Amino acid sequence: MDKRVAVLASVVTILAACSSPRPLETAGAGEVRLDLGFSCLWWSPAQMEGMNPNAPPPKNTEVRLSKWEYSDPIGVPHPDVVDVVITLTNSGRQAVSNLEVEVASQWRRGPLQDAARAVWGERAVLKRFQNVSVPAAGSQNLRLPVDLKKMMEALEKEQFWPHSLRVMVSVRLPGQAQPLTQAQAELPMMPGD
Q1: How far is CA 88 from CA 37, 45, 79, 83, 173, in A?
Q2: Domains and CATH numbers, the chain
Q3: What is the pLDDT of residue 193?
Q4: Are 106 and 118 contacting, i.e. CB atoms less than 8 angstroms apart?
Q5: Which of 58, 97, 147, 193 could form a disulfide linkage to 133, CB 3.0–4.6 angstroms apart?
C-alpha cells in the first residue's frame, strides 16, 4: 500500500509540473531593469560662447535634463519639447521579448507665480509600446516626445503654469497585472521672471 501511495504522489508531482509550463518570454524577465529620464537637443558649451541669441545656430547636443528653467536665455536648457528616454537593460543570458511598456504622465499645475498652490492633475497614458524585445546582456531604448510648450500655452490663458511633469513607466508581460519593473521621473519647470 505504501508503494502505491509513493508512486501516486510521484505521478501527481510530475503532472503538476507538466501542466503549468513557463513561457520562454518569462524565463529571463526578472533580469530586466528600467532607467528613465528626460533629454533634449541644446547648444554645446562651445556653441554658446559668443552666440547671438537672436540668430542662434542649430541645437545639436543631446543633454539630460533634471529641471526645465527659463532663467538664462541660453545657458540653462528650456526646450519646447523634451524626450522621455526609457532604457530597458537585460542582464540575463536569454533575450526577453513580447514586453508591453506603458508610459503615463501627470502635470502639476497652478498659478504662474505661486508654485505652492499647484496640484497634480489626472494621470493620462501617453503611449503603450507593444512587442518590445531586449537582447540577452543588452539594452533597448525607447523615446517619446512631450510638448511642453503646448501645455504652457494652454495654461497661460488662465495665468497658470505647469510647475512639474511626472512620467510613470510600467513594463509588463501581456495579460499580467503585476509589472516586471516600473519607474517614475519628475521634471520641475521653473518659469522666468
Answers
A1: 12, 30, 25, 16, 14
A2: 24-190 (2.60.40.10)
A3: 61
A4: no
A5: 97
Q: Cα–chain-centroid distance for residue 167?
A: 6
Cα end-to-end span (Å), the chain? 88
CA–chain centroid gap for 17, Å, is 37
154: left (phi over 0), alpha (psi -120 to 50) or beta: alpha
pLDDT in tens, 36-60: 999 999 999 999 999 988 899 999 9
Quick one: pLDDT at residue 125?
98
The number of residues making up the chain comes to: 193
Residues 6+ apart with CB under 8 A from 160: 109, 110, 111, 112
Cell of 110: 497652478
C-alpha 68/C-alpha 155 separation (Å) is 17
The CA dihedral of 14, 17, 18, 23, to the nearest 10 degrees, is -160
Cβ atoms of residues 25 and 97 within 8 Å: yes
**In the predicted structure, residue 29 carries a pLDDT above the cut 70:** no
